[in-house]
Amino acid sequence: MIKIVHYINQFFAGIGGEEKADFKPEVREGIVGPGLALKTAFGNEAEIVATIICGDSYFNENLEAAAKEILEMVKKYSPDLFIAGPAFNAGRYGVACGTICKEVQDKLGIPAVTGMYIENPGADIFKKDVYILSTANAATGMRQAVPAMAKLALKLANKEAIGTPYEEGYIQRGIRKNIFREERGSKRAVNMLVAKLKNESFETEYPMPDFDRVTPNKAILDIKKTKIALVTSGGIVPKHNPDRVESSSASKYGKYDISGVMDLTEETYETAHGGYDPVYANLDADRVLPVDVLRDMEKEGLIGELHRYFYATVGNGTSVANSKKYAAEIAQELIKDGVQAVILTST
Amino acid sequence: MRLELGKVLIKDMQFGNQTKVENGTLFINKEEMLNAISGDDRIKGIELDIAKPGEETRIMPVKDVIEPRVKVEGPGSIFPGVLGKADVVGSGKTNVLKGAAVVTTGKIVAFQEGIIDMSGIGADYTPFSKTCNLVVVCTPTDKLQQHEHEQAVRFIGLKAANYLGEAARNVVPDEVKVYETLPFAESLKQYPNLPRVAYVYMLQTQGLMHDTYVYGVDAKKIVPTIIYPTEVMDGAILSGNCVSACDKNPTFSHCNNPVIEDLYERHGKDYNFVGVIITNENVTLMDKERSSNWTAKLAEFLSLDAVIISEEGFGNPDTDLMMNCKKISDKGIKTVLITDEYAGRDGASQSLADADRSADAVVTGGNANEVIELPAMKKVIGYLEPADIIAGGFDGSLRPDGSILAELQVITGATSEIGFNKMSATTL
Asked: Which of B44, B118, B228, B363 is the Cys-Cys partner for B57 at CB 3.0 to 4.6 Å?
């Protein structure tokens, strides 16, 4: 039988309301509060072996310590599954459920499920990482929430394929998954066009995201004293691409030492980029990564100094999430190395 | 402009003594065909092979796919301004070898070329596993520059398709479909009460080897213009590019543009499909501004109520897509977009490089970054080695047993942005 540990707050454990929200983590054998409804839903397939109770204020005010403490409690029972809540619209309870589910998944490798109202702040923070069953905004929705949560939880414990948010009832995680539809794309477009013309309802297949626009930094006051680094998405790498940066959808970036390099030549550098005609970049990689010009400017005193390393990846087909990750890492190193300005070249 | 499209259905393809169609089989005289398509001294050798649906065959790296067609009646010839004079095509009669295709391959031209598997899971993702393919394997001379190589292979492919197309000239088609678009003023008279719609057809023009040709003109040098939908069916637009295989439009897809076909389906019933606006996807901001201004201007000039806009490629052209959408929407014209997605291998990233609030009706061809495992095939036409370097492949994509682990991006036509396929994506 599948062993489950259940997490609830002080209120659902019947300990008290706001006045008891500083209740410290405590583990009790067996079922407490909403665990009873879960037990009914699980029938003979699963058993709640322990219930962990923690006050919402205590958890949120001692996030790290509380999470660590609770993780230890979960570990002791080595369960097959972890369930938290449901938290409905209780904000701090939702954040606690999301946090502890993610911890249990990441650190113990145990599948976890929670339930929340879609506007619970915990839903927005954790929907990407954790299956959060979409519930009503108050505990009166317990009767609907529990069977759906139990069903999803059993599927996860049994490693069954998880269906769409619509089928399973969880809050959209924001993960794009390929599917096959009934009609070809052009027909779907025509259908959508006719619906739009007739002011009928239609469902877009790709809802527009909130686009991340970056505000440029303030201008540099004295360029002659500035240490400048080169970073490119144009794929310039030492000849033969030692790090095997991919021609598209780059899974990495390279960091290359150019101390003493005055000019990028056909013999020494090339591009790994698959999205543009490489002939001119391969003949003279300075066209994409202007080391030669910056060396001249360095010599003439027009800039302070060219940083010892350049960083390069391939922008072609590389996901925005990966690009952001690389940029964050590169930026940290550049700051550490005292770089004050960066020339970013794209292609 | 009225075109009768005669479909000669091809179910089998074989080499034989004479190039002809007999009972649904296309016989090909290899030697005669080689003579017809040879002669470019930039190419050392050409080999011909056949790949049929269901066979355990992999074709790679694929450059282009072309459908054999022949002009039976009416002005001009297939691929006007390229293989023939620049006569205006799209009227009269055209015969098609439906079910046959020419596929060009050989030593890789550039990174962005594709894979066609004739069976196995990979076959489910490409439209060209369902056609009988005459594969043209071109070996370039040593040290041939990439853009020269591209041009040579492009012309050989077109010639091969036209050579085979001739076999359909005197055959009575199995099916005939008529497409007609009236001159603008007449079409308004014919359907005075129907909303007017057009198709904004974005063509890949990001630069050398990322080009599309319109009547032989490199489309990055055009300003957006209007053409009849049937001109496209006669090869007015053709592919000269090496962009990612999954979402570029091979010449085959241009001639069979499904947006045009499906817009015709409900023409005269739900709307009046007045024509096609072609535009490009150049890389400089000035070009992008100019072209999107012009598509919006032409949409207004035609007094349109709605448009479908299709993209070709991804990343940089996402900007053109959004600029077209925003500017056309700002004219009070409704829009539906067709694109595909690069949401990362885990699907968790933002899918497009640009976004606009006006893009509220979007059809997607799926996430090109999703990873697929292609089993080894008994036969390979072309070369397996580029699997690690083509767009969508990575170091170690090609395994010792000949199987390939790569992104869907590597499969020719997998995430078509002119809506060739049933694949799409949803949010989990």
From this structure: B118
Do the beta carbons of residue B303 and residue B196 sit within 8 Å? yes
Please check whether residue A70 is in contact with residue A53, taking contact to mean a CB–CB distance below 8 angstroms. no
Share of chain A above pLDDT 70, in %: 99
Enzyme catalytic residues of B: 242
Which candidate in B108, B111, B205 is best for mutational testing of the A interface (most A CBs within 10 A)? B111
Residue A178 to residue B346, Cβ atoms within 8 A: no
A156 and A262 both lie in a single domain:
no
Reported ipTM: 0.97
Q: What whole-number percentage of chain B has pLDDT above 90?
A: 92
Residue range of the domain that includes A154: 2-168
The continuous run of DSSP H or E covering A177 comes out as strand A176-180
Which tens digits make up the pLDDT trace of A97-136?
999 999 999 999 999 999 999 999 999 899 999 999 999 9
Q: Looking at beta carbons, which residues of chain A come within 8 Å of B352?
A: 206
A180 interface with B at CB cutoff 8 Å: yes
A326 contacts in chain B (CB < 8 Å): none
Same domain, A21 and A111: yes
In a domain, A80, yes or no: yes
Q: Please say if the pLDDT value at position B209 is more than 90.
A: no
The pLDDT of residue B189 is above 90:
yes
* A108 plus A237 within the same structural domain: no
Average pLDDT taken over every residue of chain B: 96
A300 located within any domain: yes
Which residues sit opposite B182 in a β-bridge? none
* Stretch 203-232 of chain A: residues touching chain B, C-beta under 8 Å: 204-212
